């Protein structure tokens, strides 16, 4: 059974229909890449999966998204809890103007139920899992803003991991970074994919083919094709997918 899925999901910004009935599901574990030309609705779709679009007043949604079988758009959903279970990493690293340590424990401080020793341990484990521990272990109490962009992004990923999510949504997580930093993040994501279900928007087709297990191709608010990554890149079934991945448009 899919851990998270959408059914006939339509999303409108005012009158503009940005998602035109998306039905797809994500199995537990692994990385799914969402690809497609600019404006096709990839980021909009990603944000529907943990209700980040709630923050935009002009948005209306029909259809549903369910996480572990429950409708996340139900009025009973606790969105703070939902966004812990389904965490999000953005294109621009967005650490808070606090220390590295305080960034990582941000979500846990709000819960207020961990001892100092537990917090120390979670900070270390999360930074190790995000492959940034060696860079920051001697300056945990320095500002996260003093780090490089790539290190900041890995600290942001550690902040998501610290609250033990099931699903991690990544919106072009490496597009603001240089190739070396991007490579470190790709390797780190590969290391995490046994434990987490990851869904990643990317413009970078090499990145999608290197690290994702499944790929979904979006075009003008429609889901055109969704399959194992190697099928999408080597043997697409739809002409539009083939035209896009061979660079005929986009
Ligand atoms: N906050 C918003 N308000 C109004 N329209 C929006 C908003 N965000 C996105 N849109 C519109 O919705 C459509 C889909 O945009 P979206 O950002 O989801 O596409 P995308 O595939 O992620 O594009 P990109 O690759 O350029 O980030 C576009 O027509 C866009 O202009």
UniProtKB/TrEMBL annotation:
Signal peptide segment: none
The keyword rRNA processing belongs to this UniProt entry's keyword annotation: no
Statement: the UniProt record of this protein carries the keyword Lipid metabolism: no
Pfam families: ABC_tran
GO CC term (a single one): membrane
Domain ABC transporter: 4-245
GO molecular function: ATP binding; ATP hydrolysis activity; phosphate transmembrane transporter activity
Domain of life: Bacteria
Keywords: ATP-binding, Nucleotide-binding, Phosphate transport, Transport
InterPro entries: AAA+_ATPase (IPR003593), ABC_transporter-like_ATP-bd (IPR003439), ABC_transporter-like_CS (IPR017871), P-loop_NTPase (IPR027417), PstB-like (IPR005670)
The protein's name in its UniProt record: Phosphate ABC transporter ATP-binding protein
Source species of the chain: Vagococcus carniphilus
